[in-house]
Amino acid sequence: MQRVILHSDMNNFYASVECLYDPSLRSRPVVVSGDAELRHGIVLAKNYLAKRFGIRTGEALWQARQKCPEAVFVPAHYDRYLHYSALAREIYVSYTDQVEPFGLDECWLDVSGSASLFGSGKQIADDLRSRIRRELGLTVSVGVSFNKVFAKLGSDLKKPDATTVIDRTDYQKKVWELPVGDLLYVGPATAKKLARYGIHTIGQLARTPLELLQVAFGKVGVMLWRFANGQDQSSVSPYYSVPPIKTIGNSTTAPRDLVTDDDVKITLYALGESVAARLRSQRSVCATVQLGVRDNALFFYERQSKLARPTNSCTDIVQEALRLYGRNRPERPVRSLSLRACDLELEDEAPQLSLFPEDSRSQHHMELERTIDRIRTKYGYNSIRRGIMLIDPALDLDAQRDHIIHPIGFLGTL
């Protein structure tokens, strides 16, 4: 049976959802922005009217205002985006149970076995677009192809609210003249390196000797060559499957530069509370702690270290992060920090702790924090807090959600 893969991409997702809540925005350039006062002042998303002025995702808000003074800047409402993302996926799973999310606003669907019920891939894509427009008030662009890579490429070719089919008979005509940067996983750095070899289009990549790409790029070169030649065989994961989680982390840009050790300590404990609570909720422990530091000149580095014993204790994780920070202290004040728990394993599979004092202390920390979880579940997060958070409450990424905490490793585009 020939595979039929769809890739659905919700058009200008964040901005489109904001227009649902305020229809007066539909005729105006809309920019969904971070909080400038908390130094998250960048463009998170924009609608097509804003795009016409050259506004780009990730640029500073002052740059966007210079390009389009009449643009409307609205704050992000992540609860709304999660809600509509879930509603769209409910529609997807009515066609197939093989639905693989790629960020909040994109999904692959394998509809190979659905033709007898719903028609061809194009018919399913058109019906899906119609339902989302009618039931949710949003639009999607859908690519239809025989593999995931070309299906995603198809969803990018025509926007908004369009279906693009790339099949085995015409993919070279439709795909090979496109810039190599349009191919999945070819970022700016890879595209620049490919250009040094005279590779500027997907077709040039496809016709490049595989041996050359393997020498120059290793396994990535082989993967990209296969993508360009339509040889992607990766499957679409079942929607209800739970992928193994390899890391859990959070990062934040502080509302002011972190100058003292106490500033860094407060912020790391705030991040650590979130990371450790998520570990415990999944009955996992980590064996490695990774710290990321960005100074106020935007220089970024990461350091990691193995723990003496696996843990899901905030205290143990943050103490290790502080040791990493002390050994790799930046010369300038810190603008943002990230904290990641790596090398996860199930808590029940963790090695038995010994009777040594340090092992006993770690076990005590884990039991104590599980008790704190129960108290917060019953009486609310603010019912019990760490005293260090009272030193400078502005740095506490608290339960009031005054500060946005960004999960590390989030995929997808806006």
Task: Describe the protein.
By secondary structure, the protein is an alpha+beta fold. The chain folds into three domains: 1-175, Alpha-Beta Plaits (2-Layer Sandwich); 176-228, DNA polymerase, domain 1 (Orthogonal Bundle), CATH 1.10.150; 248-407, Dna Ligase, domain 1 (2-Layer Sandwich). The protein contains 15 helices and 13 strands. The strands form three sheets. Strands 5-6-1-7-8 form a five-stranded mixed sheet. The protein has a five-stranded antiparallel sheet with strand order 11-10-12-9-13, covered by helices on one side. Strands 3-2-4 form a three-stranded mixed sheet. Helix 4 (78-92) packs across helix 6 (121-136), helix 11 packs across helix 12 and helix 13 (261-281) packs antiparallel against helix 14 (314-327). The longest helix is centred in the last third of the chain and has 23 residues, at 357-379. The protein is globular, with a radius of gyration of 24 Å. It starts with a strand and ends in a 7-residue tail after the last strand.
What's the helical proportion of residues? Answer: 25-40%
User: How is the main sheet built?
Assistant: 5 strands, mixed
Looking at the structure, what is the overall shape? globular
Query: In total, how many beta strands?
Result: 13
CATH C-level category of the largest domain: Alpha Beta
- CATH topology heading of the largest domain: Alpha-Beta Plaits
- Strand portion: 15-25%
Order of helices and strands: EHEEHHEHEEHHEHEHHHHHEHEEHEHE
Distance between the termini: 34 Å
Biggest sheet strand line-up = 5-6-1-7-8
Q: Give the overall average pLDDT.
A: 88
CATH superfamily of the largest domain: Reverse transcriptase/Diguanylate cyclase domain
What is the domain total for the residues? 3
Q: Helix count, per DSSP?
A: 15
CATH architecture of the largest domain: 2-Layer Sandwich
